[in-house]
Design goal:
Strand order of the largest sheet: 3-5-6-9-7
Distance between the termini: 31 Å
Radius of gyration: 34 Å
Mean pLDDT: 86
Shape: rod-shaped
Helix content: 25-40%
Order of helices and strands: HHEEEEEEHEEHEEH
Strand content: 15-25%
């Protein structure tokens, strides 16, 4: 039996079976990876910046195609109303209302600081500034669990339009907020910019690749079956040859 299993012909059969099994497994995994990647969000068209007034309106929510769009906003920061958004990457966001000069304001995340007494907190630019950044939707307050401890005065946990309406009474608040990527003129002490990814669009699963993956794995199982089938025939053939070559018993 062992002589048959380790004969040159059988060794070639073993190698072919192992090679076919490995190839089918790898090709199936490759097609599965293509299927998984097809469902991931992909980069969407990133148009040139537009005035924030064209996308963020007072009294209405941002549309999905406005999220992460590049915008520009010109106005003056209301320094006395600046807030700190706590628990953001181990530090705080600087959130200040930007008066657009038309009776409305847009919240602007000026940047990130590691602590509340950082010099950049007080370095709010005076006069007219031009802010360039990406537009983000209002954050839901119910997505952040409330902490048992009270936040210090002037700090919030979310950038929520309904909450800001109460904190900034009398402001004609536009929906959403801008995460600044550039400010002109620049502040005397700049905070670290907050990173915001460009807009994405949902991917579409390519079920054809999943079918291809299943096909390759079926081919691998078929290769194992054929290996067992040929090996069984070899053993049976060799056994039959020995039986036919045996001398008949004498009476």
């Amino acid at each position: 039996m062992l002589r048959i299993l380790f004969s040159p012909r059988a060794l070639v059969l073993h190698l072919l079976a192992v090679g076919a099994l490995i190839a089918c497994a790898l090709l199936g995994r490759w097609q599965l990876g293509v299927f998984e990647d097809s469902g991931k969000p992909r980069a969407a068209r990133d148009p040139a910046p537009v005035a924030v007034q064209t996308l963020a309106r007072q009294g209405s929510h941002l549309t999905s195609d406005a999220v992460s769009r590049r915008v520009t906003a010109q106005g003056t920061f209301e320094r006395s109303r600046q807030l700190l958004v706590a628990e953001r990457d181990g530090g705080l966001w600087l959130l200040a209302p930007l008066d657009l000069g038309d009776g409305t304001v847009i919240p602007v995340v000026r940047g990130w600081v590691p602590r509340a007494d950082d010099p950049a907190v007080a370095a709010v630019p005076e006069g007219t500034v031009t802010v360039t950044g990406r537009l983000q939707p209002s954050e839901p307050t119910d997505s952040v669990p409330r902490r048992a401890r009270a936040l210090p005065a002037g700090q919030v946990l979310t950038v929520s339009s309904p909450e800001l309406i109460n904190l900034w009474p009398g402001a004609g608040l536009r929906d959403g907020f801008v995460v600044a990527t550039a400010q002109s003129p620049a502040p005397a002490v700049a905070a670290k910019p907050v990173s915001v990814p460009p807009p994405t669009e949902p991917g579409g699963l390519t079920w054809r690749n999943l079918a291809y993956a299943a096909q390759w794995w079926i081919f691998g199982l078929f290769a194992v079956f054929m290996w067992w089938h040929f090996l069984r025939d070899m053993v049976r053939s060799r056994s039959g040859d020995r039986d036919s070559g045996a001398e008949p018993a004498t009476a």
